[in-house]
């Protein structure tokens, strides 16, 4: 329904055995960089990062809170974020999500009840942007070559038809 693409869903099982958990009542004071999965049920006072090209997944539970920026390819939020969210792949905002900052995304799902106090900024993946610019560059070169091989245009002022 509504054009949902089942193939674009985040695969939670992919990170089985590779997930770090910050449990309820735990406070991390500082930046967090991770690989695989990160489940936050506590509080992080700092930025959260994962490598851009990875399949890393951040899950922020209803009880979880992040006070800082998020730079993770796949993000599922059901708690509170005070900072910008940057995702190169997929953002899911669940019913209890509250984001006080801008959300930069490629694909986004937002459930009724989620709140964003900031802007939603769509970013195309870098690969797609590169493909478009290369395609435009090829068309431009082809157009220039066609013009140089074409018959010279006659200026109507200088043509003398008899």
Walk me through this protein's architecture.
This protein has 162 residues and is of the alpha/beta class. It has one domain. It has 1 helix and 18 strands. A 6-stranded parallel sheet has the order 1-4-7-10-13-16, with no helix packed on it. A 6-stranded parallel sheet has the order 2-5-8-11-14-17, with no helix packed on it. Strands 3-6-9-12-15-18 form a 6-stranded parallel sheet, with no helix packed on it. It starts with 18 loop residues before the first strand and ends in a 13-residue tail after the last helix.
How are the secondary structure elements laid out?
Layout: E1 19-22, E2 27-29, E3 32-33, E4 37-40, E5 43-45, E6 48-49, E7 57-60, E8 65-66, E9 70-71, E10 74-77, E11 80-82, E12 85-86, E13 90-93, E14 98-100, E15 103-105, E16 107-110, E17 115-116, E18 120-122, H1 126-149
Parallel strand pairs: 1-4, 2-5, 3-6, 4-7, 5-8, 6-9, 7-10, 8-11, 9-12, 10-13, 11-14, 12-15, 13-16, 14-17, 15-18
Average pLDDT score: 83
Major sheet characteristics: 6 strands, parallel
Low-confidence stretches: 1-8
Q: How far is the first residue's CA from the last residue's CA?
A: 69 Å
Query: Rg to the nearest angstrom?
Result: 24 Å
DSSP strand content: 25-35%
- Report the order of strands and helices: EEEEEEEEEEEEEEEEEEH
Integer tally of domains: 1
The class by helix and strand makeup works out as alpha/beta
Helix count, per DSSP? 1
What is the strand tally?
18
Any idea what the shape is? globular
Proportion in helices:
10-25%
Strand order of the largest sheet: 1-4-7-10-13-16
């Amino acid at each position: 329904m509504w054009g949902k693409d089942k193939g674009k869903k985040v695969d939670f099982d992919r990170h089985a055995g590779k997930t770090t958990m910050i449990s309820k009542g735990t406070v991390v004071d500082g930046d967090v960089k991770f690989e695989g999965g990160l489940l936050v049920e506590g509080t992080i006072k700092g930025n959260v990062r994962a490598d851009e090209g990875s399949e890393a997944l951040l899950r922020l539970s209803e009880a979880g809170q992040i006070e800082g920026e998020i730079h993770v390819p796949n993000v599922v939020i059901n708690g509170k974020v005070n900072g910008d969210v940057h995702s190169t792949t997929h953002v899911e905002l669940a019913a209890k999500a509250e984001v006080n900052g801008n959300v930069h995304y490629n694909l986004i799902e937002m459930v009724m009840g989620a709140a964003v106090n900031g802007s939603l900024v769509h970013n195309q993946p870098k690969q797609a942007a590169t493909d478009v610019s290369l395609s435009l560059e090829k068309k431009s070169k082809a157009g220039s070559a066609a013009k140089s091989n074409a018959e010279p245009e006659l200026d109507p002022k200088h043509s003398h038809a008899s």
